[in-house]
Design a protein that fits this description.
Number of domains: 2
CATH architecture of the largest domain: 3-Layer(aba) Sandwich
Strand content: 15-25%
Order of helices and strands: EHEHEHEHEEHEHEHEHE
Number of helices: 8
Helix content: 40-55%
Strand order of the largest sheet: 3-2-1-4-5-10-9-6-7-8
Structural class: alpha/beta
CATH topology of the largest domain: Rossmann fold
Shape: globular
CATH superfamily of the largest domain: HUPs
CATH class of the largest domain: Alpha Beta
Length: 276
């Protein structure tokens, strides 16, 4: 992982996401790219889109970011791009161009600030991005490392695919992976699928020399139970799959992924089937 991309609208939430990405950059020795997409609005934003020159002002703000962070830590490598169009499309295109390994973006969750493009576009960025996307809320207080990663496993066909990206991050941070095996049905066939995906994930972590622990639970309340587990166990990152499928067994895809992105109190890394 050598290229990280951060969506920037100059809100406090976006700067928070940038600072979180810098933690990863230091451990991965990666370059951080930032992208701002015209147009921008919202009372929390620094850019005044009414003055007729938002691009010029954005360029000046990016220069301030470069001066501030690069002087504070010379090892940090930062670059930026100004773009125009649909936010999630421009971010996706730029991610492909720079071959981004991870995208970082803030999310306002369900706090009512959907008019900010970071908040309203977070899930669209997740579903359109060519690589995994890390979303986080402004109130998440992070440290200098990612010590614990939560990896929920369910009965969906691609549930264990996220283990490859998760393992890369765990290796860089020397993290412990908490595997949460979620049984949402009493059907024996679905329980066997969960067990099979659990074994696949555990085998890969074993081969990668990554510490892990397994917790199996029966639940019908996926979002609150996952968030509660993350909070109680002081999880630093939750890794999920987001590929939309049609079978009822795929509880960690589509709607649930969106709920977790919006409601999880800790950062969520969303991995699509094609990016796992």
């Amino acid at each position: 992982m050598k290229s990280l991309l951060v969506a920037i609208d100059f809100s406090k939430n976006a700067i928070h996401a940038l600072e979180y990405a810098l933690v990863y950059a230091k451990h991965l020795n990666a370059r951080v790219y930032m992208i701002w997409v015209d147009n921008v609005s919202g009372p929390d934003l620094v850019v005044d889109s009414q003055d007729g020159a938002p691009r010029h002002e954005s360029r000046e703000l990016f220069k301030e970011i470069l001066d501030g962070y690069e002087k504070h830590s010379p090892v940090i490598k930062l670059d930026y791009k100004l773009s125009k169009g649909k936010v999630y499309e421009e971010i996706s295109k730029y991610a492909g161009k720079i071959k981004a390994d991870l995208i970082f973006t803030g999310t306002h969750g369900v706090t009512g600030f959907e008019e900010y493009w970071i908040g309203s576009n977070a899930y669209r960025i997740v579903t359109h991005a060519p690589c995994p996307v890390v979303t986080l809320r402004q109130d998440f207080k992070f440290g200098k490392s990612v010590k614990k990663i939560l990896m929920p496993i369910d009965s969906s066909s691609q549930s264990s695919n996220k283990v490859f990206t998760t393992a890369e991050i765990a290796t860089a941070f020397n993290s412990e992976v908490q595997i949460l095996a979620l049984h949402t049905s009493s059907l024996g066939s679905l329980k066997k699928q969960v067990d099979r995906h659990l074994k696949t994930a555990a085998d890969h972590l074993d081969k990668s020399g990554i510490k892990y622990a397994v917790k199996e639970v029966s639940t019908k309340n996926l979002t609150p139970d996952t968030c509660d587990f993350a909070t109680k166990n002081r999880i630093d990152l939750v890794a999920i799959m987001t590929e939309q499928e049609t079978t009822q067994a795929n509880v960690f895809l589509g709607t649930f992924a969106r709920q977790l992105v919006n409601n999880c109190p800790v950062p969520v890394m969303s991995v699509r089937m094609s990016t796992g």
